[in-house]
Amino acid sequence: DEEEWDFVLVSDIHEVGSEKEIKRKKFLDELSKKGFTIKKIEDKKLFYGVRAPKQIFQKYQGLLRKPDNRLQNPNVHEDIPVTTRIRIVNFILQNTTTPDLEKLHDLMKKKVFEATFPLHKKEEAREFLKEKWARWRGIFCKQPIEKIRCYFGEKVALYFAWLGWYTYLLGFAAAVGTVVFVAGITVFSSSQVSKEICEASNTIMCPLCDQKCSFWLLSDTCTYAKVTHMIDNEGTVLFAMFMAIWATVFLELWKRQRATVVTNWDLYRWDEEEEELAMELINNLQHEPRQYQHSYFRSTIILLLVLLMIAVLIGIAHALVIYRVIAMALFTQSNFAFLREQANTMAVMTGAVLHYITIVVMTKVNRRVALYLCDLEKPRTFSQRENNFTVKIFTFQFFTNFSSLIYIAFFLGRINGHPGNYVRIAGKWRLEECHPSGCITDLFIQMAIIMMLKQTISNVMEYLVPWIAHKLRKKQQRPKKRCMILGEEEEAEDPCKRQWLSNYQLNEVNIFSLFDEFLEMVIQYSFTTIFVAAFPLAPLLAFCNNLFEIRLDAIKMMRLCRRMVPRKANDIGIWLHVLEAIGILAVIGNGLVIAITSDFIPMQVYKYTYSPCMTENNTGVDCLTGYINHSLSTFRIQDFEPYTNGEPGLALTGLCCRYRDYRNADDYSYTVQFWHIFAARLAFLILFEHVALCVKLIAAWYVPDVPQCVKNQLLDRKHSNLHEELRWVMPQKV
Q1: Dihedral, CA atoms, 363, 366, 367, 372, nearest 10 degrees?
Q2: How far apart, in whole angstroms, are the C-alpha atoms of residue 224 and residue 338?
Q3: Among 210, 252, 618, 692, which one has the highest count of C-beta atoms within 10 angstroms of its own C-beta?
Q4: Residue 48's beta-bridge partner residues?
Q5: Where in the cell is it found (predicted)?
């Protein structure tokens, strides 16, 4: 068709003879020399439609045709898919050099061209996807991966195939997590530990802050204790183990799924390097491949800069800790009774919101830093640059998202000292303490708030920002009805003009558009697996989010954004290694949460060593009877630091208060029980991690990466190819 255009370049209308106009002309002349057809349409901007000559695609087919095809029909050129056509034209546009040694990228930086994009056209695949896929009503329907591939290329199709598969298997994890959570709700009221806390109306606790904090009764925190034991129970330990195995099984099953999909696409043994070299030669026959290089000096500099950035991110986590400590001190001195009573919870919740804001801000900073480091590295190819960028941005995002959670999980309440000798920030503010029933609820609140905010605000913004931007662009670009000279009136009727304008009004896409979607999902996968022992509802939230995420991404790509340049791929690339690393971190993280954050180990040690069941052979009582009294230490009030000004809100029977720790009453040194529990925590951690990693390895071995049917298909293909070659060779010998 004479009016089929591969790409559109958009430029401002520059003055004749200006530097920008000369640069633009030079670039378009270079394209003309390569045989490109160029059509110019003038509106408020200049639009240049470009169409590549047939010889380019014939060269591509000739270079990358399989040997068996080459033998059978050396002169036949079947139609090339639209996605491949766009990819080749984009490569040539990006790598065409003007006499001034400038490429399109440089010209866009200098505002010679404003935009470049392939067109959304009225193809059969597009109409199908708009109607059946990019609709909210199709939320529970299977995705048409084959059609997505035909329109957006293999890389986008593999992203949606992976996201669909992840969401499908997340359904099972969500169901188990919900059962564990509901079991916790139904069982927690009968928990012996929470019962003891609720009945401890004579246990006087030490003040939680220095000023305006009174002594308090342990029974006042009855509700908090019940909530804690709703999360912190035996079911959570089993669920953490289940999620470690789930993560492995999910990846192994994905590898099988991916092998089946790419075999059907005939891309199983596709070579990206060969593809790139072929395109370089099509663009420029004199092209010399860039050699592999490695500089230890450059790598050392990059490593040091990455470590510096990680130190900055950990510093931000420290700032959040300081905020919580100061907020706690201010809330406890507030004139509002509610704020004073709920000071700890309010500090945790506002800290979580602040953490979310730092995540949003630092995501933008992390991207700029990662891009700068990639430029320093000077990677050989685009795919290598993408891999390097992926590793760096994921590392930065991981520390941005998880530094604060790591502090709450493993350090909160463990480095704050004890009454009479508190650890203080700037010698003034006390570090936070854990509740007598454990710190796991703080981690639960933090994760719940961050996940809810990420999945509501972030998703709403992800949809609304492109939608509003599209509407505004459409309004600005609406052509004014003019009636001047006859030629211009005819030009306004040009169907190309309408099509190009409507595509230009859509939101810009860049090379990171798909990358952003992957990064968002991989960070979500980290939340779903790494601290799942503290938040069993994480898989359920992720599952609900993903059902919407698939359609949200589909609507954005089909209706709100310009067409993405298709990319060829036969897997999800380095993301698979990132997911495998998260799987190992999940085992370590959950092992640490159960061993350190949870009260599971201290309870078991008490149950099997110090409980009435063991010491008195009394089987008629609950074995955890007396656990709370056992886990609290005694402090003499006269030993408080001089500036602790607690308000004695209770008539003190003995001049002592209790606090959560295992210390002697006389010199406040650690008791034998502390070291017993410490050894048990360490033993459990080693055992849990080794068992979980062994189960992961067995699961990885048990589920083959490639299905047998795919292996047999490849075997048959090789056999038939060799058979065919032999048939062509034999007559020549005769």
Answers
A1: 170
A2: 15
A3: 692
A4: 9, 40
A5: Cell membrane; Membrane
Alpha helix ranges (H) inside 110-201: 124-132, 145-152, 154-188, 192-199
The strand pair at 645-647 and 211-214 is best described as parallel
Q: Residue 202, CB half-sphere, CA atoms under 13 Å: how many?
A: 3
The predicted-structure confidence for 75-115, as pLDDT tens digits, reads as follows 444 578 888 889 999 999 998 888 888 888 989 998 889 99
Q: For residue 67, is pLDDT > 60?
A: no
d(CA 188, CA 209): 29
Q: How many residues does the chain have?
A: 734
Res 650 pLDDT > 60:
no
At 214 the three-state DSSP class reads: strand
Rounded to whole angstroms, how far apart are CA atoms 571 and 264? 13
Given a cut of 70, is residue 648 above it in pLDDT?
A: no
Whole-angstrom Cα distance, residue 62 to residue 96? 22
User: Rounded to an integer, what distance in angstroms lies between the CA atom of residue 331 and that of residue 704?
Assistant: 56
User: Is 379:385 a contact under the CB 8 Å cutoff?
Assistant: yes
Radius of gyration in angstroms for the set of CA atoms belonging to the chain, rounded to a whole number: 32
- Phi-psi group of 567: left, alpha or beta (phi > 0 → left; psi -120 to 50 → alpha; rest → beta): beta
Q: Which residue has the tokens 């609720």?
A: 198
Instruction: Give yes or no for residue 378 having a pLDDT over 70.
Output: yes
- Res 546 pLDDT > 60: yes
Q: What is the pLDDT of residues 685-698, one digit of tens each?
A: 999 889 888 888 88
> Which of 202, 198, 205, 189 lies closest to 221, judged by CA?
198
Closest CA to 197 of 650, 629, 657: 629
The mean per-residue pLDDT over the stretch 419-434 comes to: 80
Q: Which residues contact 661 (CB under 8 A, 6 or more apart)?
A: 418, 632, 633, 674
Q: Would the pLDDT of 38 be above 50?
A: yes
| CB neighbour burial string for 442-465, b if at least 16 within 10 angstroms, e if fewer | bbbbbbbbbbebbbeebeeebbee
What is the spatial distance between Cα 102 and Cα 115, in angstroms, rounded to a whole number? Answer: 16
What pTM was estimated for this model as a whole?
Answer: 0.87
Identity (one letter) of the amino acid at 657? C
Name the residue type at position 512: F
* Chain position carrying tokens 């706690």: 328
| DSSP calls for 356-394 | HHHHHHHHHHHHHHHHHHHHHH--SSHHHHHHHHHHHHH
Task: Provide the CB-side half-sphere exposure for 532 (13 A, CA).
Answer: 38
Strand, helix or coil for residue 487: helix
Sheet containing strand 204-205, edge to edge, reads 216-217, 204-205, 656-660, 632-636
Q: Find all residues with CB under 8 Å of 664, minimum gap 6, and list them.
A: 633, 670, 671
Q: How far apart are CA 50 and CA 113, in angstroms?
A: 14
- 156-165 pLDDT per residue, tens: 999 999 999 9
Rounded CA-CA distance 506/470 in Å is 5
Rounded to 5°, the CA angle 314-317-319 comes to: 115
Q: Which tokens is 693 given?
A: 């990693």
What is the C-alpha separation between 512 and 585, in angstroms, rounded? 26
Spatial CA neighbour of 252 closest among 526, 486, 471, 580: 580
